[in-house]
Amino acid sequence: MFFLGTLAAIAFYVQGQSTLEDRESERKVVTILADEPVDAPPLPLPWKDRLDVSAATLVPILGSPDPNTSGAPTATPAGAVQTRIDAQEALYVQDLNDGHRILLTLDPVLQDSALTIFRNREVPYAGAVMIDLRDNAVLVLAGHSTMDPAVDPLEIVGTAWAPAASIFKLVTTAALLDSGAATPATKACFSGGLHGIEDRDLRDDPARDKRCETLSSAVAHSHNLVIGKLALKHLDQDTLTGMSRSLLFETEIPFEFNIERSPAHIPDAPTERAKVAAGFWNVDLSPIHAALMTAIFARGGMHQPPHIIARVIAPDGTDLTPPLPTASRAIAQDVADAVGLMMQSTTLEGTARSSFRDRHGVPYIRGVTVSGKTGSLTGRREPFFNYNWFVGFAPAERPEVAFAVLLANEPKWRIKAHYAGRRLIELYLERREAIARARDVLVTPQGLSAPVRDPSGAIVRNATEAANDRSNSPGGDAATADADPSTIDPPESPLPPLPPPPGALPKRPEPS
Question: Whose C-alpha in 10, 66, 78, 506 is 20 to 30 A from the C-alpha of 51?
Fold first, then answer.
């Protein structure tokens, strides 16, 4: 009874008191500002969640110099070999059932060529990505599997399903340069370490360490112990982790499709960290991330998220094209430039030399140097694929494209990644003018329109004007002019520079 009486007394007392809300409401008129209006969330884009590369078809470009591209569009999916429309002067367009039209940045010739290489060589799993360094527009987004034809191609290029292997040496090299602990000429002496790294190999032993190589040579020839020893001496966990994140590991990468985060688990234990720094396990990578990482080196340390949408129009022709992603600085320009310069030696004399020069030293690609990096690592469990990488950019002196090729080969392989990478670069160099012209193409409710150019490549008039000239000339066909799908004049602005101008340099620590 005493407990119940006490509880009743407390309840009576509480009911007689004003609450915090009561007191605040009494003061509200004089102490609280009026609520500011909250902006309504933007309306969802009517086409965004329906973007589907496999549903895109080839559409000929009106005004292209190739007359064979005229005629009605034929449904030719981006993952299939085109039959009727000449892919040389056509682009991929996805038509939605409500009238929206989406023009993709993919180059049909390069896209189909990558898939054809993988099919012909019967690669179990393969992915290739190539991006235009003007604004990181995606030119190739090719995923293929001979072993599992039903696999989603976007999973192959957007999922971090393979170990980064020696591609991670680029991260370690950038961290060594950025910290001031090493230069391209810094040497380390070693023995062994060609296939794996044992703890004892990381310890200096003058009696055994008879071979010495520079950091630059270690990048070109993928010397595990040079990278591992330099990392052991100079890179702590935070420094290597920080550089890996600057180069997009453990980072969300904005894109029209999902890109899985590439995990990078940097151990605290020094010897284990040195092995990871050299490319042994704990780090996985997706092909599109690999291409974007090399793009950072190619663009002087600048990062710009990729995009695959060139233009979008509504059913009434209204332009709904989203703005380009904003570029930002990822690493210091001098670091990016130094790593890119070291990557040139990979194709000139290093691990990719056989695909870029014949046995007499004659280059297969005349007049163009490619900056690259190879990586290879055999899986730890069945089916024991050999994960084979080649990433890079070209031309090395004035980069235009960055790329990544990843193959999962069985023990008996038919192709290496650096061969496929070289073929894509050769095809790009043949297509570079057509790709540049495609950036001017406009999409309308009726078709694609390109400006007319003179032999030098300069824009002289758009396709509408050319059609009107034909209709007004003697013998001109007015009906043909009325059917001209071009209704919007293309801009006559020059292409953005290559590469984009770098931003402000981050502050770097002084060498100790």
Answer: 66
What domains are there in the chain, each with its CATH number? 113-430 (3.40.710.10)
Euclidean distance between CA atoms 61 and 46, whole angstroms: 25
Tell me which DSSP letter residue 452 carries.
E
Which token pair is 55?
A: 């549903």
Which DSSP letter does residue 45 get? P
Per DSSP, the three-state class of 91 is: strand
Q: What tokens were used for 222? A: 């993928």
Output the pTM of the full model. 0.80
Instruction: Please give the single-letter amino acid code of residue 304.
Output: Q
Under 8 Å CB-to-CB from 310, ≥6 apart: which residues? 91, 103, 104, 105, 137, 321, 438, 439, 441, 443
Quick: pLDDT tens for 82-101: 457 899 999 999 999 999 99
**Nearest one of 132, 134, 72, 125 to 107, comparing CA atoms:** 132
In one letter, which amino acid is 203?
Answer: R
- On whether the CB atoms of residues 97 and 91 are closer than 8 A, the answer is no
First and final C-alpha spacing in the chain:
78
Over the stretch 3-62, which tens digit does the pLDDT of each residue have?
445 434 434 443 444 333 343 334 333 334 445 555 655 556 676 788 999 999 999 998
Mean pLDDT across 133-155: 96
Q: Which residues pair with 461 in a beta bridge?
A: 452
b/e string for 302-322 if b means 16 or more Cβ within 10 A? bbbbbbbbbbbbeeeeeebee
Radius of gyration of the chain (CA): 29
Find all residues with CB under 8 Å of 18, minimum gap 6, and list them: none
Indicate if the pLDDT at residue 504 is higher than 50: no
**Tell me, what amino acid is at 165?**
A
